[in-house]
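Slide 14.
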Amino acid sequence: MKLQTVALRSIQALISCCLLFETAPAFSQTGPGGVSSGSTNLLLWLDGQNVNADGTNPAIGTEVLTWYDRSGNGVNVTRNISNVATYSANGVTFNNTGFLNGSDATFPTGNASRTVIVCASSPSTPTDDVFFFYGTANNNQSYGVLKIGTSNAVRNYFYANDLDVAGGWTPSGTLKIITLTYASPTQIVYINNNNPPSTKNAGSVNTTLGAQGLQIGGWNSFTLYSQATIAEIILYDKVLNMAERIIVNNYLAAKYEIALAANDL
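Slide 15: predicted structure.
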């Protein structure tokens, strides 16, 4: 117990330092809360408080034409049709008509490890909401994050052997931090950094790139779109360790005033 307390205090000190770097204009920040700053592990960072990736945002209520990637990798996403999404106080709100599209060329493929963090809210509707998707419409070749409309469940999506967490988007319209990890063969879903999380064997995963690219707010293969408001989407090419996960979750929790279920530092 004493060692655990010391570890949590060390994590708290790290969080304080990382948040200080995030707010200090003199430093170049390339990772949420400082995690993966200056490394190649961060593949994508769509920040709903910095849509243009230069410290500015579209006017509230106006259409989002391009959501610029803050990771430094240039994975910007642009509308596939007009009026896909508009800007709101909490991020990018999708209109259930289309998606923002980008390249998945640098994303984890096959059964490579990954972490996706989605900070978003979903309305109370019986339809599915697609937050993040890349891959093909074949079993185990996809990867994405969805809300199942009939149960408000979070779905870690491989298009086979998916992990559903019932009620993950309840109550509707409330921002949640959903952290999803995969290290063959285990998939894990945290909701607001809950402990213990939900786990499941993912079976045979063979994520395939290039078929449709990255799709935010929709999935073209099954004509599934979204009415969600997405605050942030973050992708790493590894499973974050406990300290890194706690830091990123606390960074988002402080930024969007979200109470975490565990390690709310």
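Speaker note: DSSP finds two helices and 18 strands in the chain.
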